[in-house]
Each structure stands twice: as structure tokens, then as C-alpha cells.
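Lab meeting, item 3. Inverse folding demo.
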């Protein structure tokens, strides 16, 4: 598939990118290089290859999904300009 100037201008308009007319040939060529690279990737045999999240095999650390106060609410509230009864106090914004 080859991208012509009209298609490059259409893609730029869809992406809400202003491209000056003299820059359209370069943009079309860049699109064509990207598509060529994708064609190369399509030639790679990935049969039997499992999808992966990282290049190194590792499992994410798991912990129980429990609601806690973090274990040190006093330290957290010590940074607040105003705190009462274990909560942050903020200015009223709704009348």
C-alpha cells in the first residue's frame, strides 16, 4: 500500500495536524516508511509465541486488596494545613 499526497493530507486533517502543502511529500514518504516497517513485521513468524508484558520474565508482586489507613495516618495528616478528627479539613466550595 502506498500513501499519496491526498491521503497524507486527509490523515493530517483527521489528526487535526496542520501541514503546509510543501511538507506533504515528506509526510507521505514518512507514512510509506512506517507502512513498510509494518509489512516487515507482518513477515515475522510468531506462531506459538505467548504475548508478554515485559522482556524479562517476572511476576508482579501481589498483595491482598484491603482498604487500610496506610498504617500511619498521623504522619499523613501532619502535612495538612488543617485536620480534625482524623480527616483533612478543606474550605467549603458549594453554597
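The presenter then showed the designed sequence:
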Amino acid at each position: 500500500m502506498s500513501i499519496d499526497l491526498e491521503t497524507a493530507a486527509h490523515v493530517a486533517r483527521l489528526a487535526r495536524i496542520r501541514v503546509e502543502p510543501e511538507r506533504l511529500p515528506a509526510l507521505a514518504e514518512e507514512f510509506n516508511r512506517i507502512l513498510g516497517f509494518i509489512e516487515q513485521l507482518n513477515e515475522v513468524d510468531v506462531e506459538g509465541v505467548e504475548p508478554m508484558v515485559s522482556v524479562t520474565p517476572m511476576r508482579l508482586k501481589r498483595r491482598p486488596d484491603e482498604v487500610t489507613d496506610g498504617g500511619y495516618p498521623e504522619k499523613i495528616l501532619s502535612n495538612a494545613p488543617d485536620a480534625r478528627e482524623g480527616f483533612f479539613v478543606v474550605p467549603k466550595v458549594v453554597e
